[in-house]
Amino acid sequence: MKIPRMLSFVLIPILAILVASPAFADNGIIGATPYVSTSTSLRCANLTQGLHYGISDTTTNGEVSILQTFLHKNGYLSVNPTGYFGSLTFRGVKAFQAQYGMRADGIVGVQTRAHIFAKDCGDYTPPLVSAAPVISGITPAQGPVGTAVTLHGSGFTSDIIVHFSIGGISNGVIGNNGTTLTFTVPEYIGPFCKAGQMCPMYATQLTIPAVYSVSVENSAGTSNAVSFAITN
C-alpha cells in the first residue's frame, strides 16, 4: 500500500522520535548514550534521590545510570545503562527488592537505597578530604625583618603557602604532623602570583615597620588571619 506523499512527511518524523525514545532504549531495542554525571561517582552506588519508572539521568544528576550500573553488575539488568528508568530497570529493582525481603514495588525509596548502599559500598573507603588550615597562634608576634616566626594550628600541608601582608608570600617549614609552620619575615613583599602567571615585579616593596596580616593557604582553602608587627 502506498502512503500519500503529504502523510509521509508526518509519519517519518514521528517514527524517528519513537525509535530514539528512552522507552525503546531501556528495552534494548536501540542503544542510548547515558547522561554522564559530573558530581556522583559510579564507583559506589550511593543514591540520594527517590527513583521510579519514567525518570532519567537529566533530572536525577546521573543517578539512574548509577542504579542501572549496580543492577547490571549484580545480574538484575541484562542491558547496559541507558540513563532512563524503563521497564527493564523497573523489573530489575523489583527482583532486587524481592531477594532482600523488601516490598517489590520497583520504586527506589529510602529502604531500597540503604540496601543498595550496603551491598555496593560496604567495602568502599572514600578518599580523605583535606580541611582548610587553621591558625591558633603565632610566636613571636613581633620582631624585625628576618625573624623566624612559628604559626600554630592545623592543616599545614606540603602545598602550604604563607601570605605575609596582602599578596606577600613566603614558603614555610612544616613540623609536628602539620600543626606548626615556621617561616622567615621577608625583607620585601610583593603580589601573590601563582605558577605560570606573570608577576608585576614593580609592585614589590620594602618591608617597613608596621602591623601585617598573616594567613596560610593550601589546596583546601585559606586560613584565618593573625597579626605580626615588624619592629626596627
Write structural notes for this entry.
It is built from five helices and twelve strands. The chain is α+β, with helices and mostly antiparallel strands. The protein has two domains: 5-121, PGBD-like superfamily/PGBD (Muramoyl-pentapeptide Carboxypeptidase, domain 1, Orthogonal Bundle), CATH 1.10.101.10; 134-230, Immunoglobulin-like. The longest helix is centred in the first third of the chain and has 15 residues, at 5-19. The N and C termini lie far apart (102 Å). Residues 16-25 and 27-42 have low confidence and may be disordered.
List strands and helices in order, with pairings.
Blueprint: H1 5-19, H2 22-26, H3 63-73, H4 87-99, H5 110-121, E1 134-139, E2 142-143, E3 148-154, E4 161-164, E5 169-170, E6 173-175, E7 180-184, E8 188-189, E9 205-206, E10 211-218, E11 221-222, E12 226-230
Parallel strand pairs: 2-12
Antiparallel strand pairs: 1-3, 3-7, 4-5, 4-10, 6-7, 8-9, 10-11, 10-12
User: Overall pLDDT, averaged?
Assistant: 79
- Rounded to the nearest angstrom, the radius of gyration is 30 Å
Q: From the structure provided, what is the oligomeric state, counting identical versus distinct chains?
A: single chain
One letter per element, helices H and strands E, the order comes to HHHHHEEEEEEEEEEEE
Could you name the CATH class of the largest domain? Mainly Alpha
Helix content: 10-25%
Enumerate how many helices there are, as a single number: 5
Just name the CATH architecture of the largest domain: Orthogonal Bundle
CATH superfamily of the largest domain: PGBD-like superfamily/PGBD
Form type: elongated
**End-to-end C-alpha gap:** 102 Å
- CATH fold-level name of the largest domain: Muramoyl-pentapeptide Carboxypeptidase, domain 1
Strand content: 15-25%
Largest sheet: 6 strands, mixed
